[in-house]
Amino acid sequence: MQMALLARLSLASSEARESSLEERHAGSDEQTLEQSTEEASQASHFDSDSQVLLVSSSVDGSLPNTGQLDRECNIDNGMIGVPSDRTNYSGDASGEVADGGLSVSSAPQRENVILPRLGDICMEGPSVRRQTADRGFPRIISSSSMDARGDFSAIENQVRELINDLGSDSIEGQRSATSEIRLLAKHNMENRIVIANCGAINLLVGLLHSPDAKVQENAVTALLNLSLSDINKIAIVNADAVDPLVHVLETGNPEAKENSAATLFSLSFIEDNRARIGQSGAVKPLVDLLGNGSPRGKKDAVTALFNLSILNENKGRIVQADALRHLVELMDPAAGMVDKAVAVLANLATIQEGRTAIGQARGIPALVEVVELGSAKAKENAAAALLQLCTNSNRFCNIVLQEDAVPPLVALSQSGTPRAREKAQALLSYFRSQRHGNSGRR
């Protein structure tokens, strides 16, 4: 009963912000990875001083495609989603994992596993257990007939057995155990609570320094899936995971780096964690991933940087790490990350360092273009950033006017979102006051 209560508490506390953690295949860095998870909401607009927050929306208005599985964290169209686990799967509906974590085929494949919204998950729902006859190839079997108490007991026994392997000296044993735990942590919230309560988190954190790339990748991905639970977010940080996650972000294989960035993003939903992550040195490797990572890595990095940029003390760190140059590059529609990049820019525009860096990176023409051609949420964020730039610098104000920003701002003031109309009207009013002031001085 106590375990069930913990699970329900965690489900309720997470529902308002997160929808599901799901696995995806790692593909070639040259191939754009598709978006697939439905994303969770986080209350959101710019507040009065243009601080960016987000509102709920579907990613590009689409749901996962059949046969695909993705652990994306996004702020597309002004919406945040929580990233998730990735593992190479066969097409077998049972969820059997390919031996050694190798891809079953050369092309990225993703299972379509869409979990219900967390508030809809109940203790009597489908549960999972390992088929013991297949020790070398972990196999997770759905079962709706198992008694909830018996199911928890079975999963606890399974997890305790896997924990023994996590602490062994055998690399093969660690690979197998971390692979199974990341898979168990993928399926539902109850599993995540059980895994954490059995003491797996500390061992997984220790394995982030493993010299074996696959063990490290499995461990960080398991922590990513476990972090969906707010209780686990706190437990992971209390296990001193932040510095090891930064180590993975700096030294891991591409998949591990992406999942480390996604884990930091997930942990940063807890307000106190944002300062701790910012102080850990995570910002620079996140910015490096933003500039040099795969399309997936860039998305993971920009969402993590967004959450960190909510905290004032992190804004300067992000600017000093030369993030603005990469963010402006990502405002090219061809990159597919305009909404994400503009959301971070709008946060950084609230400090002088950020405004200076936006001007130096030629971000003003890109922001004006977004006001004219971007999505509804991107227009809102771009208008907020321009308002900050113009009201704090006559030079930037002149550049904005030279970019012929008035017509798209007039259109936005009439047909944008309420927040976008407010920002556009304020900016147009500022232009008028400046013009009248200059006229009076003559």
Description:
- This protein is an all-alpha fold and 442 residues long.
- The protein is 57% helix and 2% strand.
- The protein is built from 21 helices and 2 strands.
- A two-stranded antiparallel ribbon has the order 1-2.
- The longest helix is centred in the last third of the chain and has 24 residues.
- It is elongated and about 75 Å long.
- The chain starts with a helix and ends with a helix.
- The N terminus is likely disordered.
- Pathway: Protein modification; protein ubiquitination.
- This is RING-type E3 ubiquitin transferase.
- One of its GO terms (biological process) is protein ubiquitination.
Entry summary:
The chain is mainly alpha-helical and 442 residues long. It has helices spanning 2-15, 148-166, 171-187, 189-197, 200-206, 213-226, 230-238, 242-251, 254-267, 271-279, 283-292, 295-309, 312-320, 323-329, 338-348, 352-360, 363-373, 376-392, 394-402, 406-415, 418-441, and strands at residues 127-130, 140-143. Helix 6 packs parallel to helix 9 and helix 17 (363-373) packs across helix 18 (376-392).
